[in-house]
């Protein structure tokens, strides 16, 4: 028996070899010895046996691809094209064998077999063409790149497939086979060249004409459905594989029209007639409906949708899926395979739990009749409702199943279309696919939600929801125009109100579908679609109440039996707490008692019956938390997430993935991860609610970081970072939170003491997971500076030592996070005065600044900027002592490294120039005199000047102008004497006049107003050049091509006026003639701007400082006094009195003020 068992796998291969030998024997026999009739009979028998075996049970071991190809080639050599019955049977054999054994034909054999089929199509009678085309389709499947030389014969203007698929072709079976072959040719092979554009366009037009055609009475429903399916697959292949971009409006409109038509193909109770093309329009377009009976009212439809039966479950094997794709067969009972997008329900599905979809049965064998009935998808029509006999019922069931496959194919194709057109183009067709509230007396337009609510197939409903999700994804900008917060009583409806109406209708329909749905897979898609809608809708511009309804409806699904539904429900809750946070409506929802809204979603909603099923109790290690004002119970969502994360799972709550998580006492990992993410979003958006449980949430983060699962540890670290960031925001100087409402400092110190005594240091030191270490670094950098200074010395040293050590990590993610964290720490008041720490940090940052990773260099440059900010602060607060203690060698190293970094990419450069400005400001006279520094100073100044003049990003140039302003503050530098002075002033003067970005102009004007002595501006000619540039800049302060820049024009005028007055207050007698000449020419314009400057009153300028009217008047009076003194000395030599001009301006301002006050 053992011998027999061992030999069994070789039997199929052995029998296949015997067929090969029989063919070889027939080929070797001389024609004289055996009549043609005898050989023909034997070939018929041989082909019948092979076809029979290929249609039988699956063999234990399939024959090799080489043997299959060899057999087919030998058979073709034996069958002449005039033997048409044998040709037909041979083509059936090719079709069956290639599909059954998933054979990819090599190029040499493909050339022979394709040539044979093409010749057969040209020479044989039409009755053989269907079988030949089926064989050809099987040959070219996934072999498109190898068929290049045959494309003119197949897809040229007079190509065989083009002719047979023409709309004038009377034989629908023939047309279907040709379209299928064309669709298989359009399949792409990764790494291989795709069809030329001319062939792509020919195929696209053919598929489009097929989809636009109508079924005639002589064509049966199933054949027509298969024809449509093949065309849809062809278009999907063109869009996916060929990366075809739909650019022309008529092309997009025609495709969307046929897709909308096919989306509703055979949908019970609905029949629509679509125009040849859709056009971009803000309102729903006319689609003529001819329903066989009046539509049910909404409650009736609701009831019908809610009574969906459970479908049988099963699994499809990978090989069977591939076979089904290759065969092009419709999955008659269980909806067709839609490709990767439709099979992979992304957006957070549980990857570890592959589970059969509702209603999915086993895939068919390729040998079966493709029209065989395996229908289970239409069980909603019971036998008592059916008007057909069993045989008729079977046919009707089969037809409905194929119609469902067409709808799914259209939706899959639509999904590919969405990826092939720009979103701004897609949203022109929004009203054709997204529901809008129906007008008075008019029916609602058909949309994707019509399918989601009324289609009897759960898979089709899920497909429609996936398409709707894809449309909603990234729609924030489009939906941002929606507004209905105020009542619009006008003769027309504004577009903003139309979009708002559509958003409201989407909420209504999705919540209706949520309550009515029974399929877990489709339910998951509904919730994900809602999450996408919530993430993109502008609730601050809409009437409140939408989120409340979503919140109350989704609550019970947290306890659903299917873990994917529970995960997606948490995702939706996360979207609610993160959208435009903080929203007053969400704030109220978070403060609701735990039981609110649990039973508001109707009896059809599956949930655990009582409130006791909600887990209670937060970790109690931190003592009794204080409830926020107005809350009688803890925040429901916070309690829920914490209970899912830290409490053991309840036995009563089983889910479909229980078999995968029996080893764990906790809830399934995806559910815990989603809860952690929701908790982090809640802390981020509504910290005032979460802060009452500050220590308890810290304990949750600690427990997560102590676990073995790296993903749980990672999200625990992210929660810790959000908690730290929330406290930092509260303690910012400009925070709106009053000191008594902040988390007390003592509690923050306790919190971080627990963190540093917990798992955080261990993760930073020993974790093999770089992403986890990176998040832990980010968390450690979120510590409050005041809390850090209150930590024990050993804990402070631990933090600094960990970060300095991680700065030498080989992983770029970890190194970048450590470099950034050091840049945060160097600003701490308790550390920045420690010269040794600053020096160690500087060396670590300079090391990272030379890393090969651009991300590491960008973070290091940011930290270097912060470090140099510290140098300036210490110089101002500690004086010469710090400057003398800081290493000259290290300072020179910083100067050279920052100069080199200023030539790097823009993300590095923007902070490198900031650091250069600070270091050059920090230098002392003995540094400037030191020969070792002289060359480095010159190079760094040239780097700054060239950056100001460069075409770099505006942030880089903005920082470079700011840096030059910092340089001008250092009295030790020979400003006004050195050659680089002229270059610096010239660069700033050019930018202040002509830069497109007003913020760069503002910074350049600010830099030009910094030198405190006239000598710093150099010669009279240079002073004149600066003055003239500022006057031109003032006159151009409203000239901009970018409307967004216009809001900075007032700040720009203010800064330029301050710079001009500063120059006047420093002017020499030799400067006055040039100034008077400018005033004589442009005095009126200058006067109007200065008056506007004086009138503008208290406002914050771009530098962040306030100057009131009196301060501005004082500056003008100071300039008048200074100029008056000089003009008095000149006596009659002065051509004009600038001081008199300024006095006139001041008088006008005083008169205007008096009139205003009167």
TrEMBL record:
Superkingdom as given in the UniProt entry: Eukaryota
| InterPro entries associated with the record | ARM-like, ARM-type_fold, DUF4042, HEAT6
Q: Where is the DUF4042 domain?
A: 406-586
Q: Where is the composition biased (Basic residues)?
A: 306-316
A Pfam family this protein belongs to? HEAT_2
Q: What Gene3D superfamilies does the database record attribute to this sequence?
A: Leucine-rich Repeat Variant
Disordered: annotated span: 283-333, 349-373, 597-628
Q: Where is the composition biased (Basic and acidic residues)?
A: 286-297, 317-329
Q: Which residue intervals are annotated with compositional bias (Low complexity) in the record?
A: 355-370
- This chain's protein is named HEAT repeat-containing protein 6
The taxonomy runs: Eukaryota, Metazoa, Chordata, Craniata, Vertebrata
């Amino acid at each position: 028996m053992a011998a027999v068992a061992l030999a069994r796998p070789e039997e199929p291969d052995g029998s296949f070899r015997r067929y090969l030998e029989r063919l070889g024997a027939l080929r070797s026999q001389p024609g004289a010895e055996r009549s043609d009739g005898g050989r023909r009979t034997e070939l018929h028998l041989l082909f019948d046996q092979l076809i029979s075996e290929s249609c039988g049970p699956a063999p234990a071991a399939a024959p090799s691809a080489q043997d299959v190809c060899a057999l087919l080639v030998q058979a073709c050599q034996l069958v002449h094209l005039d033997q048409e019955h044998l040709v037909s049977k041979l083509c059936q054999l090719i079709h069956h064998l290639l599909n059954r054994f998933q054979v990819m034909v090599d190029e040499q054999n493909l050339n022979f077999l394709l040539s044979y089929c093409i010749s057969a199509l040209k020479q044989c009678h039409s009755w053989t063409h269907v079988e030949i085309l089926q064989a050809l389709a099987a040959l070219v499947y996934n072999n498109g790149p190898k068929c290049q030389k045959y494309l003119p014969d197949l897809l040229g203007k007079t190509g065989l497939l083009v002719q047979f698929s023409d709309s004038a072709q009377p034989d629908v079976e023939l047309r279907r086979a040709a379209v299928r072959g064309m669709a298989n040719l359009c399949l792409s092979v990764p790494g291989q060249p795709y069809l030329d554009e001319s062939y792509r366009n020919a195929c696209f037009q053919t598929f489009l004409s097929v989809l636009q055609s109508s079924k005639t009475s002589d064509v049966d429903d199933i054949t027509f459905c298969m024809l449509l399916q093949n065309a849809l697959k062809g278009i999907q292949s063109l869009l996916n594989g060929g990366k075809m971009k739909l650019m022309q409006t008529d092309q997009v409109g025609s495709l969307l029209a046929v897709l909308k038509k096919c989306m509703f193909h055979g949908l019970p109770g609905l029949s629509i007639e679509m125009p040849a093309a859709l056009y971009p329009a803000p309102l729903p377009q006319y689609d003529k409906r001819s329903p066989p009976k009046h539509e049910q009212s909404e409650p009736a439809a609701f009831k019908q949708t809610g009574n969906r039966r459970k479908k049988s479950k099963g699994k499809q094997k990978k090989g069977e899926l591939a076979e089904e794709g290759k065969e092009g067969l419709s999955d008659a009972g269980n909806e067709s395979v839609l490709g990767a997008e439709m099979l992979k329900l992304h957006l957070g599905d549980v990857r570890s739990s592959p589970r059969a979809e509702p209603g999915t049965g086993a895939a068919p064998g390729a040998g079966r009749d493709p029209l065989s009935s395996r229908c289970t998808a239409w069980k909603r029509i019971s036998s008592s409702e059916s008007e057909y006999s069993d045989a008729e019922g079977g046919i009707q069931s089969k037809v409905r199943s194929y119609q469902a496959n067409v709808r799914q194919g259209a939706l899959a194709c639509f999904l590919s279309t969405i990826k092939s057109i720009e979103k701004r183009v897609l949203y022109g067709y929004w009203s054709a696919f997204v529901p809008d509230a129906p007008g008075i007396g008019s029916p609602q337009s058909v949309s994707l939600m019509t399918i989601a609510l009324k289609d009897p197939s759960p898979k089709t409903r899920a497909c429609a929801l996936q398409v709707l999700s894809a449309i909603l994804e990234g729609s924030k900008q489009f939906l941002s125009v929606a507004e209905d917060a105020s009542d619009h009583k006008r003769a027309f409806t504004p577009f903003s109100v139309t979009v708002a109406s559509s958003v409201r209708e989407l909420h209504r329909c999705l919540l209706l579908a949520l309550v009515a749905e029974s399929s877990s897979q489709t339910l998951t898609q509904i919730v994900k679609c809602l999450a996408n809608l919530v993430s993109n809708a502008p609730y601050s511009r809409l009437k409140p109440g939408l989120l409340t309804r979503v919140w109350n409806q989704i609550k019970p699904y947290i306890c659903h039996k299917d873990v994917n539904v529970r995960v997606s429900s948490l995702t939706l809750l996360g979207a609610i707490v993160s959208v435009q946070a903080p929203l007053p409506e969400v704030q109220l929802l978070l403060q609701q008692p735990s039981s609110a809204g649990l039973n508001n979603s109707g009896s059809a909603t599956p949930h655990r019956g009582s409130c006791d099923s909600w887990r209670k109790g937060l970790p109690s290690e931190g003592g009794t938390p204080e409830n926020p004002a107005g809350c009688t119970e803890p925040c429901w969502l916070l309690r829920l997430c914490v209970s899912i994360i830290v409490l053991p799972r309840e036995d009563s709550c089983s889910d479909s993935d229980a078999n995968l998580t029996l080893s764990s006492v906790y809830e399934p990992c995806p559910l815990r991860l989603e809860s952690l993410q929701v908790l982090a979003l809640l802390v981020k958006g509504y910290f005032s609610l979460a802060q009452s449980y500050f220590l308890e949430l810290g304990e949750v983060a600690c427990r997560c970081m102590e676990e073995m699962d790296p993903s749980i540890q990672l999200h625990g670290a992210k929660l810790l970072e959000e908690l730290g960031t929330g406290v930092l925001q509260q303690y910012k100087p400009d925070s709106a939170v009053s000191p008594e409402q902040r988390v007390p400092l003592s509690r923050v110190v306790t919190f971080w003491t627990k963190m540093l005594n917990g798992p955080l240091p261990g993760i930073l030191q020993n974790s093999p997971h770089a992403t986890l270490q990176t998040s832990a670094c980010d968390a450690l950098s979120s510590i409050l500076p005041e809390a850090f200074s209150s930590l024990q010395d050993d804990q402070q040293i631990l933090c600094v030592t960990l970060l300095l050590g991680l700065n030498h990590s080989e992983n770029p993610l970890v190194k970048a996070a450590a470099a950034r964290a050091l840049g945060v720490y160097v600003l701490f008041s308790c550390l920045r005065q420690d010269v040794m720490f600053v020096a160690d940090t500087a060396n670590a940052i300079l090391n990272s600044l030379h890393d090969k990773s651009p991300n590491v260099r960008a973070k290091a440059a940011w930290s270097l900027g912060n470090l140099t900010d510290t140098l300036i602060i210490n110089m101002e607060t500690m004086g010469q002592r710090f400057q003398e203690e800081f290493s000259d060698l290290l300072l020179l190293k910083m100067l050279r490294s920052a100069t080199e970094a200023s030539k790097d990419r823009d993300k590095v450069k923007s902070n490198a120039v900031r650091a250069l400005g600070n270091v050059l400001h920090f230098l002392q006279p003995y540094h400037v005199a030191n020969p070792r520094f002289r060359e480095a100073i010159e190079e760094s100044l040239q780097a700054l000047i060239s950056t100001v003049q460069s075409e770099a990003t505006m942030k880089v140039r903005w920082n470079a102008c700011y840096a030059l302003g910092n340089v001008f503050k250092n009295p030790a530098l020979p400003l006004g004497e050195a050659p680089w002075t002229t270059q610096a002033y010239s660069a700033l003067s050019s930018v202040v006049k002509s830069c497109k970005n007003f913020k760069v102009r503002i910074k350049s004007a600010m830099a030009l107003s910094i030198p405190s002595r006239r000598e710093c501006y150099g010669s009279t000619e240079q002073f004149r050049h600066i003055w003239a540039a500022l006057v031109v800049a003032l006159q151009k302060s409203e000239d901009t091509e970018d409307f967004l820049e216009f809001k900075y024009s007032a700040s720009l005028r203010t800064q330029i006026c301050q710079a001009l007055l500063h120059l006047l207050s420093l002017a020499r007698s030799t400067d006055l003639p040039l100034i008077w000449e400018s005033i004589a020419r442009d005095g009126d314009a200058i006067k109007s701007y200065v008056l506007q400057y004086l009138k503008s009153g208290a406002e914050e300028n771009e530098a962040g400082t306030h100057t009131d009217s009196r301060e501005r008047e004082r500056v003008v009076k100071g300039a008048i006094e200074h100029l008056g003194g000089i003009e008095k000395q000149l006596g009659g030599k002065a051509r004009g009195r600038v001081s008199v001009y300024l006095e006139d301006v001041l008088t006008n301002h005083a008169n205007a003020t008096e009139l205003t006050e009167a």
